Amino acid sequence: MNRLFIYILTLGVFLTATSELIVSGILYVIASDLHISIALAGQLVTVYSFSFAALTPVIVFFTSRWERKKLLLLSLVLFMLGSAASIVPHFGVILVSRALLGVSSGVYLVTAFAAAAKISPPDKVGSAIGTIVLGFSSAMILGVPIGIAITKWLNWQSIFAILGVLSLLMALVILRFLPRMPGDEPASFRRQFKVLGSGVIASLLLLSFFRESGNSVLLTYLTTFLNELLHLNAGTISLLMLVLGLIGALAARLGGSGADRFGTRRIILASLIIHVSALLLLPLFTGSLAAEIVLIGSIMFSMFMGGPALQTHVIKQAPESSSLVLSLNTSMIHLGLAAGAGSGGMLIERTSTALYNPWLAGIVVTLGLGTALFSFTLSKRRNTQTA
Predict the structure, then answer these.
(1) Neighbouring C-beta atoms of residue 21, cutoff 10 Å
(2) In terms of pTM, does the model score above 0.85?
(3) 351 to each of 215, 308, 347, 355, 361, how far by Cα in Å?
(4) How far apart are CA 331 and CA 312, in angstroms?
(5) Which pLDDT score is estimated for 127?
(6) How many CB atoms lie within 10 A of CB 303?
(7) Alpha helices for the chain (secondary structure H)
(8) pLDDT per position as a tens digit, 220-262
């Protein structure tokens, strides 16, 4: 029965994550309809990410003791409001709607992770987290093409009307089928924030930042890399991106079950080593399409394999404040994505090519690998002292 609950949570993650990813494929349509520039329309993405990163930890902190089912329903109500506001053809209103969608998606994701950990046996937490991540990776695969298809069939406002209706159905399913789940253990604000002063937690948050920054340096400009350096056309790139998304979905499942079987530290380290190696080799094999595809596939596999293990590891390091730490971790992920996209764009502007982006990404992820080793050392030392 727990598996059914996990799948319900995963469907909600797919729904809320789609609201983030779906806009990037239809920015030009939104800009045209609202009579604004593409650059101004792009702020819809920025506002979403900022709200996700900045407001999610605040709400999660003040609701950490709430029963999980109640918090999931609250996040979906906010999501419905954001979806409804997105239909109003006014840029200012849509900006507000993106803020609502960002914070509600963030709260739902963090609560889903925490809920999955609470309703799963200790030896199955990694697998449960892997399934939740699968919801996000599925949104990555399907979000943009779904948005483009609905826009061509109806209009872009219909996307948010559909998301609003589906979120209502999702709320009814959660209300009917999900069990009541306790929030975090009662703890004073001082005790919760004391966790953030832990070197172990701080270094794990830094690891997430470096890891996602490196990913973003490459993935934000992957289409440019494939087109300019590997000379692939748009149709081939679309097919390859679909295959890479499927690889990511498989890796998330394997990474979650692997964390349960082999331990989170081993999966995190293995994924980072593969990740760094593939990134550093990528610019050296641009003359071989087969080698490049294998390396890019390895990057995608290692990236998604390490995600569930890292989330599981974070939960285990601070079980009494898991929601707060998870919310900060997802915020660091979004900040890393923004930093990576910015630095990757600056590198392309300086060099007039995407060739060197994998090397910059490799250097940043290497910093993450060093941070992981430092965090694991601190954790072992802490465990030794408390034994």
Answers:
(1) 19
(2) no
(3) 19, 35, 6, 9, 15
(4) 16
(5) 82
(6) 28
(7) 2-21, 27-34, 38-41, 43-62, 68-85, 91-119, 125-153, 156-177, 189-196, 199-219, 222-228, 234-262, 264-281, 289-317, 322-351, 357-386
(8) 778 778 888 888 886 787 788 778 878 888 888 888 888 888 8
